[in-house]
Design goal:
Radius of gyration: 23 Å
Helix content: 40-55%
Number of helices: 8
Number of strands: 6
Strand content: 5-15%
Length: about 260
Amino acid sequence: MKHIKKKYGFEANDEQVTILEDKGISFSNFESLDKKVPKDHVMFLKTSEGDVVKGFNKKVDGLDLIITMPDLSLVYFDSAYQINSIRKDLLKQLKIKTNSKDVTKIEESAMQDIYKYYGFASSCIISLFTSMESFINSVIPDGGEYRDEQNQRTLIYNKDQIQRNLSFHEKTRKVLPFFLGKSYFKKTTTNIQHINNLKDIRDEIVHPKHEKQLESHQALLQTLLTFKFDKTIDAVASFINYYKPNFVEECKCGNDY
């Protein structure tokens, strides 16, 4: 897979476009538009492929930019996938430059690759886990209320409270089954173990521990050298597609970007 198919936070098909037009929303040629859209207006853009997506304009360095709004879950997933490709190339170099059987000292180029490897590996982990968090929050129904039935009381959470206050474990094991009627975590599988490992190492990365002998740093770096990145990426895709079939899918365009 070179990259995944791009999707947007809002996408409208022909039928939905007709509904929008019936509500008074008109579509004009891009060249004829006044590029300064008032703040109280919502911008919809029709792409060259005929899709209608939500967008906005933003002044950057004196230029009015027109920006489409991609689905953030897929942005983070694709970022993790692309970063992982770089990480794998760096690991190949480390296997050559730091193999104790073949080298008598660690050269500066190897030190640079080690530095880069840990940076890219950490970024891959963070992006991949963020993809899951973004997706989970996106499928919680707007206006929905989650009821947590306890022994002598019932706690009720609205969507904002769920997103802000409930843990990843609670969202995946309780909230999603409550709203969607099924649970990816119902049975123990290899994919679930990969996701649990992802959560653990992500927590270690974003909340690093410090001691004089750097034991936890060493343990983290050792884990990043042997972590099953490819299988974990596949596990996250499996989790997402379980609740939203074919949401993570390979792009068929054939372009390598």
